[in-house]
Every structure is written in C-alpha cells, then in structure tokens.
Amino acid sequence: MKELMKQLEPGVRGGGRPRKLILLFCCLLLVAMSLSLFGGLLPLPSGGYSAQRIALCFLLAVFVTVGAGLLVLIPGFARKHLWPLALVAVVSVSILGHGFVSENPFKWIEPGLYIGFLLTVVILGGVLGQHWAPSAYIVPAVVLLGAGVVAYAALALVYFLFWLSEPASKLSDYLPWGFVNIRYWSQLFTWLIPLLPLALTVAKSANFRLWRVAIILGGGVWVWIALLSSARGSLLSIGFGAAFVWVVFRRDSEPWLRQFFLFLKVGVVLWVCLSILAPLLLGLEAGGRELGTGSSGRLVMWQEALAMSGQNLPFGMGPQSWLLHEPLTDGYTSTKPFGHPHNMYLMWAAEYGWVTVMLLAALLFGLVRRVLQVARLGNHVSSSKERIVLCGFVASVTGALAHASMSSVFIVPSSMLVGVFLLSALWALLQTRLKTSGMRFSGYSGQRKFLATVSSLLVACVMTVWLIGVFNYHQAMLEDKPLYLEQSADSFFPRFWYHGYFPRQYVP
Asked: Where, by residue number, does the polypeptide cross the bilayer (predicted)?
C-alpha cells in the first residue's frame, strides 16, 4: 500500500480528501481485478461467476448514485458532457421501453445493468478527466493491473507444474485454470495485454529490474496461455487494436508498439518451450488445442440473431428474448444453444433493436472522433509518456470492442468489472482537464448541495429497487439450478448468472 501511495505523486498533491478519493478508486479496481482473475478459485457461497455479477451490480449502483449527485453539484459538468449523457438517456429509454411489453419477470435486470454501465463510464470518466491529472489515476491503476497479470501468470505456472507431475491428459485439456470457461479469461487477455507496456514506461516501479522482469515474463505467460487455448478472437482483437493505434498515432505509437511486440515474442518463446519442448523431453503429448479455421458454430447463431432482429424491426424482441424465443432458422434448431450468440452487437439488435445499436454506434463515433482529435494535436497537448498511455488504453478498448463481435465481452461479469474501469479511464484521458488539480468540496451554494443530495437519494431509491430485483433473480437461479444440473449439459449455460436459462416455464 505504501508503494501504491507513492504512485499517486505528482497527480494529486497535498494529500487530503482528493488523494483519498483516488486511493478509493484504486482500491475498488483492486477488488474488481481480484474477483475477475481469482473469483473462480475462492470459496464463495454462490460461486465466482455469481459473486462477480453481484459485485458488478453493487459497484454500478454506487457509482450511478454518487454520479447523480455530482451531475448537479459540479457547475457545468452536465453541460460539458451533454452529448454522451443525452445519448445514454435515449439508449435508456430505448431499452427500458421493452420492459412494458415483455412477459419476462426479470425484464428490468439486464437493461438496468447496461444503463448503469454506460452512466458509470461517462460520469466516472468525466470526473477523473476534468479534475485530476492522468498520473493521479493511471499510474497506480497500471501498477495494480500489472501486478494482477503477474500473479495470475505465477498461478498458471503452478498449474503447469501440477500437470507435469500428473499428465493425465493434454495440457490444453487442463484449462480453464480458475474460470468456468477459458474464453472468459481470454476476454481479460484482450483488455489487459495492451496495457502492460505502460507498466514498463510510466510507473515509478518500472525503474526496478525485478518489476520489469516480472511484467515481461508475466505478459509472456499470458500470451502463451492464449496460444495454448487457441484464443483466436483475442489474438485477432489485440492485433486489430494495435493496427488501429498505429494508423491513428503513427510515430507516436512506436514506443508502445515496441513493448507490445516484446510481450508477443516472449509469449511465442514460452509456447515453444513449455508446450512443445518440455513435454517432448518428458515423453508427454505436446501442443495445445488445434487452431481451428471455422466459426465454431458462430455463423449459425449470428444468422439466428439476425433473423430475430428483423422480427420487430427496428425495436427487437425484448430483454433476454435470445433465451426465451422459438428458433427462427433451421440451423439454430439443430445446434447446441448458448446464452448469447457470441456477438454482442447482434444480440443487442435481436433483443433491443437496431435503433439501440445505432445509438450505441453514435456513442462510439463520438469516442473515436475525440481520439482522432487528440491524436491530431499530438505534441501540442501531451508529453511522450501521456501519448504512450493513450496508445495503450485506445488499443485495449479497441481490441475489446472488436472482440465483442465474436464473444460475450459485455455480458460476462469478469470482463465488465475490468472493462468499466478501463473505459472510464480512456474517457477521462480524452477530457480537457481544468487548471486546478483535484475536486473542490467546499464553496458550493447550499441550494446546489441540497439539490445534489436529493438527486442522489432519488437515484439511490431506484437503484435499491433494481438491486432487490437482482437479488430475486439470483434466488430464482438458485431454485432452478438443481433441475438443470439433472439434465444434459446443453440446458445449462451462463448468461446473467452462471445458470441463466430460466424461468422454468420458458424453457423450449
């Protein structure tokens, strides 16, 4: 913790409440990282997946409640962020409107999750970017993320040693190493690998050789796991993110790209040594999963989602209708069902309509436009380290958005727990910071403070009702879970909860 406090300099000077708020931000990120990476290994009552979802819901509820007060308290904040807040408001109306016609008893839960996620990104990112220097929150966040990557890499090597001692199966079959599905780990890989170069450049700890070696080897181990598990979507996505950064930032991206490719090279070397040479020397079966060239059944699900999106064009079939609808295409009738179509954009189009997807695309367009503006200004607005930071976060978010077209990046709780912080940080980096560092907590009028308090209380009531709905949804899952465990594996799969295919009467 002392090392973390040192990382807060010089972004927050003089200590006091502003420094404590940044420390709180880092502590929440630490909890999110710990649950995302190690939740599946902890003896939690409801299991790691459900614990991650509960933590995410509480986190979003708190952020939205506090954010509602800050919108009123901080002069000009709502006006400065008018376009993203307005778009989020329209998106909210679009997806909440389905609740009035849906027969699903838990029709408000997932819409509330997405609304809370979007509001948190805009408000948290806006507050951080407007009132604190990037070094105040980016540097300690990068240290925490790097430490999490190293810790999981060390755990993976322990699993590898266990496999060497008792090689009952192929190494790749020994996965998923703490996750109910290795693809949930690969989503974190997409978010985090582009940020590891920052741990070698912007943090004070980068001056220590042990830290640098640990980060390089840790990142290499993550790349090795991605190759071992044939994480095609993740590898393609981080490649797309790196290409986007190079196209946008050109020469400014070269320091980041050098470090990024270093992790890839170390990962390939580790894959050769650990997955091929070591097993061969010990007389074991070498290699990982076969690198397929097909769609793994995704095309069938994408066709089904596309057909759904045209049923009530352009408004979709309602929340969680992917779980509850009668199959529309012949291919999907004969395939194994999943809790989502492995494409977030088609899932949103199917359930919430193309109107909602277009509104989200408008939000994304505004984000890309701001990135291009900052990149065009280049040396005029930031130091070399800040440009490296921006390259890392742009690559991370771009990769995750690309990965969402092939996976459940924005429904799996471990991915969303990390993603909400990283998206907020990117939005903060793109803001125009005020000359004063830190946020004022005095000098506001009594009327403004009163209105801010009332705003927070009203939103707190709404979020409490939503959390009660989340709790009821969880209880229903626990009641139905034993029934589905008795059936075939095809009827049991994650969505909002680890088991999400209910209520019972809606099962096809």
From this structure: 21-41, 53-74, 81-101, 113-129, 141-164, 184-203, 210-227, 233-249, 261-282, 345-368, 388-404, 410-430, 450-473
